[in-house]
Amino acid sequence: MHFCDTHIHLYTPDSEEAADARVVASDVAGIRYLIQPGVRVADWSGMLTLSDRHSQVYAAPGLHPMYADQWNEDAAVLLRELVRHPKVVAIGEIGLDAAAESSIKVQEKVLRAQLQIALDEKIPVMLHCRHKNGFLLDILHELQVGSRIGGVWHGFSASLPFARQVVAQGFCVGIGPILLRDNVRKLLATVADLPASALVLETDLPDMARMPTDLLKVARKVAALRGISLQQTAQLTTANARRLFHKLQDNNR
Ligand SMILES: [Zn+2]
After folding, report:
1. Which of 14, 88, 100, 188 is most buried, by the most CB atoms less than 10 A from its CB?
2. What pTM does this model have?
């Protein structure tokens, strides 16, 4: 069984060993692809170093809406350069966050700038959204992001009607440890009923999960909700990730 964790923060500025230990733990559990989303500009080069060191580790550099204030011309030039790296599979995590310090106006400007780079370079996006779902979906629709490059709406927790709109635009939804919480009835229905081709898995470590192997707990829950085996869940979610992130290489060890 081969899994793909489409959203895992491996890189920490202070400890290379901690990151390496997480890669090893993932590998033992059959997680053959790890995609690290970017948060701050300062993390991008460390993420790339980690990707260069481990064949199964990839990167999705980008500026998180929490740090929208860091965006400038130098960041734009650097990001455009990084997307050409063979281990860079997406731009992320980008989006809108109602709890961030920067205004939504500033966040929107930074989001649009990064979406434009992704569209120009034909690379998918990793989306982050908090309490701005309708507005983010409108922007994505306006630019036809889903049909032109695709992406993952990460940390998905919304109801089935909204999920259907996201998927209809051409996006996948990232299913993570939120699924394991109590009182997520709407999300259970979403995961059970969405088209199988729209589902990918994530841990969002270290924010949402403690162990890389928590991905398997999420996978087991997805399998139970859809009435399929763990093996089938691994196959379909990894195939979805490989179709979307087309720079993921064959890793059939
Ligand atoms: Zn994240």
Report:
1. 88
2. 0.96
Tens of pLDDT, residue by residue over 242-251, are 999 999 998 7
Q: How far is the CA of 7 from the centre of ligand 1 (A)?
A: 6
**Ligand 1 is a single-atom ion; what residues have CB below 5 A from it?**
204
> Quick one: pLDDT band at residue 240, thresholds 50, 70, 90?
very high
> How many domains, the chain?
1
Percent of the chain with pLDDT over 70: 99
CA of 79 to the centre of ligand 1 (A): 18
Q: Please, what is the average pLDDT of the chain?
A: 96
Predicted local confidence at residue 183, as pLDDT:
92
| CA 93 to centroid of ligand 1, rounded, Å | 7
What CATH number does the domain containing 95 carry? Answer: 3.20.20.140
Backbone conformation region of residue 144, classed left if phi is above 0, alpha if psi is from -120 to 50, else beta:
left
Predicted pLDDT at 252: 59
DSSP summary character for residue 40: S
150: tokens are: 């695709």
The whole-angstrom separation of Cα 218 and Cα 202 is 8
How far does residue 215's CA lie from ligand 1's centre (Å)? 14
For residue 84, the CA-to-ligand 1 centroid distance in Å is 22
252: in domain: no
In a domain, 253, yes or no: no
pLDDT of 139 reads 98
Name the residue type at position 252. N
Strand order in the sheet with 3-5: 3-5, 31-37, 57-60
